[in-house]
Design goal:
The chain is 31% helix and 38% strand. It is α+β, with helices and mostly antiparallel strands. The protein has a single domain, classed as Gcn5-related N-acetyltransferase (GNAT) (Aminopeptidase, 3-Layer(aba) Sandwich), CATH 3.40.630. A hairpin with a 2-residue loop joins β2 and β3. The protein binds coenzyme A. The site of coenzyme A has 18 residues, from α1 and α2. Coenzyme A (COA) binds next to α1 and α2.
Length: 80
Amino acid sequence: MSVHDDYRRRGIGRALLNALIEAADRWHGISRLELTVFTDNEAAIRLYRQAGFVTEGVLKSYALRDGMLADAFAMAWLRT
Ligand SMILES: CC(C)(COP(=O)(O)OP(=O)(O)OC[C@H]1O[C@@H](n2cnc3c(N)ncnc32)[C@H](O)[C@@H]1OP(=O)(O)O)[C@@H](O)C(=O)NCCC(=O)NCCS
């Protein structure tokens, strides 16, 4: 997910993520959501943690980013 630079820190990312979780949980019966996020993406990691995602592990050298291999977190949300 991505929010345009000019509209960040206004609650849009949180609203989008919460809408996705609510649709998955209440309308589709999905009990587990997964995502990957680069380990240095503090803004996204904070957003995901606030929404209830937990870190399940580190994916070493997950993807090539501007010529360097970067690590990513595997995160998941589970219905409680
Ligand atoms: C991550 C992203 C989607 C957040 O969208 P947003 O609309 O700016 O986020 P919100 O305003 O809803 O913020 C929700 C929470 O996210 C965290 N957050 C968002 N931007 C942050 C920043 N620059 N620094 C630290 N925390 C941040 C905060 O915890 C925030 O809660 P708070 O404002 O109560 O502190 C946005 O920064 C983005 O598009 N980034 C580039 C694309 C990207 O990295 N996507 C994720 C790929 S895995």
